[in-house]
């Protein structure tokens, strides 16, 4: 394995220090929960080794909306990041081929690179509304293609790929005898449309990944999962997990179960917050004249870029935005795009923080974009 640190992690808010940031528009999640707000009694817990597949009642709660899945199809992991690591290292090696869409969360690119897997990168284009071209993916398939990797809702654009597109990719994976990974980490943040069942329920060739980190604001408990109906593959995934961490923290799993047990109430509150913030964000975006965007459809992020008529010293801009305004956004190089792209998150901040942060962003652009 050839590990390298990813810019999105090196420059993350937690590495910069939350106390140094007043207006955090870089996060792709909801505001972090406080344990006291959950009113949760953990005194009954015995701190033994947990079930290797994950707490049964938690696995049942994960698939409660998808009737074609069973708890045996679920493997609970230490965050979605570990789920993605397990998928890559189980399915891929140096003689295999992966097709992955970009921009993408860095783990979906860097873990395959660390094991010397050959990648074909399909770049989603701003000019094409960040849509997936299924035929472009079909043309990229080789005899040794083992995996097609997408995220939906898409990070960092907020694009929600339609079900027909996903079904075409599923048919392609079945036809070519490979797997389709659908990173569904933001599925519970579909604040404008009805929630879709996990795509893993549609075919044994599909692997769905998700977590409680983004939608519930609980990244600190490190609970995610992967879902697949292929019994043999799930056995292999479990073997990988047992060699990485054996089992999850029973404390973390109990908290995660509590979140999913109270999912409706928690998500209604979160969606109301997102809708309020997003409405104000849209008003701000329509009034500023430096950035252009593809309006996000789900999740709590978007990926605008500087308009072509402006020039910007991007590194100096981001440094000034942080140093002079205590404000951060996610620069494009986090996603292997030009630094004049930026991920802006509108779910994490309070409405006041979002309003001030966006005004700071505008003032910094006005000062530095020429």
Q: What would you note in describing this structure?
A:
This protein has 370 residues and is an alpha/beta fold. The chain folds into 2 domains: 7-33 and 264-368, Aspartate Aminotransferase, domain 1 (Alpha-Beta Complex); 48-262, Aspartate Aminotransferase, domain 2, CATH 3.40.640. 37% of the residues lie in helices and 15% in strands. It has 12 helices and 14 strands. The strands form 4 sheets. It has a 7-stranded mixed β-sheet with strand order 2-8-7-6-5-3-4, with helices on both faces. Helix 3 packs parallel to helix 9 and helix 4 (79-91) crosses helix 8. The mean pLDDT is 97.
Which features would summarize this protein structure in a list?
single chain; 370 residues; alpha/beta; Aspartate Aminotransferase, domain 1; Aspartate Aminotransferase, domain 2; 2 domains; seven-stranded mixed β-sheet; three-stranded antiparallel β-sheet; 12 helices; 37% helix; 15% strand
Q: What would you say the CATH architecture of the largest domain is?
A: 3-Layer(aba) Sandwich
Name the shape in a single word.
globular
Distance between the termini: 44 Å
Give the CATH topology of the largest domain: Aspartate Aminotransferase, domain 2
CATH C-level label of the largest domain: Alpha Beta
Strand order of the largest sheet: 2-8-7-6-5-3-4
Order of helices and strands: HHEHEHEHEHEHEEEHHHEEEHEEEH
Task: Determine Rg (CA atoms, Å).
Answer: 20 Å
Q: Provide the CATH superfamily of the largest domain.
A: Type I PLP-dependent aspartate aminotransferase-like (Major domain)
- The figure for the number of domains is 2
Helix content: 25-40%
Residue fraction in strands: 5-15%
Q: Describe the biggest sheet?
A: 7 strands, mixed
Q: Which structural class matches the secondary elements?
A: alpha/beta
Number of helices: 12
Average pLDDT reading: 97
């Amino acid at each position: 394995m050839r590990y390298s640190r990813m810019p999105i992690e090196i420059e993350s808010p937690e590495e910069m220090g939350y106390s140094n940031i007043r207006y955090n528009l870089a996060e792709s999640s909801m505001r972090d929960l406080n344990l006291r707000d959950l009113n949760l009694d953990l005194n009954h817990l015995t701190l033994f080794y947990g079930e290797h597949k994950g707490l049964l009642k938690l696995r049942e709660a994960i698939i409660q909306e998808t009737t074609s899945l069973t708890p045996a199809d679920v493997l609970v992991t230490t965050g979605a990041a570990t789920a993605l690591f397990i998928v890559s290292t189980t399915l891929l090696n140096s003689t295999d081929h992966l097709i992955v869409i970009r921009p993408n969360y860095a783990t979906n690119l860097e873990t395959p690179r660390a094991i010397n897997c050959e990648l074909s990168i399909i770049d989603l284009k701003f000019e094409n509304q960040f849509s997936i071209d299924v035929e472009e993916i079909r043309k990229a398939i080789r005899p040794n293609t083992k995996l097609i990797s997408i995220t939906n809702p898409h990070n960092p654009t907020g694009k929600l790929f339609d079900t027909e597109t996903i079904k075409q990719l599923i048919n392609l994976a079945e036809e070519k005898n490979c797997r389709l990974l659908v990173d569904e980490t933001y599925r519970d943040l579909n604040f404008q449309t009805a929630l879709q069942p996990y795509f893993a329920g549609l075919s044994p060739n599909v692997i769905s990944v998700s977590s409680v980190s983004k939608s519930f604001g609980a990244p600190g408990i490190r609970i995610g999962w992967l879902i697949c109906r292929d019994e043999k593959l799930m056995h292999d995934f479990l073997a990988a997990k047992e060699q990485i961490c054996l089992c999850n923290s029973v404390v973390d799993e109990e908290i995660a179960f509590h979140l999913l047990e109270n999912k409706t109430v928690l998500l209604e509150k979160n969606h109301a917050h997102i809708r309020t913030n997003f409405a104000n964000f849209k008003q701000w975006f329509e009034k500023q004249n430096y950035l252009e965007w593809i309006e996000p459809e789900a999740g709590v992020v978007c990926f605008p870029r500087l308009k072509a008529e402006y020039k910007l010293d991007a590194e100096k801009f981001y440094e000034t935005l942080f140093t002079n305004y205590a404000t951060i956004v996610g620069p494009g190089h986090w996603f292997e795009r030009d630094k004049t792209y930026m991920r802006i998150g509108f779910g994490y901040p309070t409405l006041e923080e979002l309003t001030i942060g966006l005004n700071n962003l505008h003032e910094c652009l006005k000062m530095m974009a020429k």
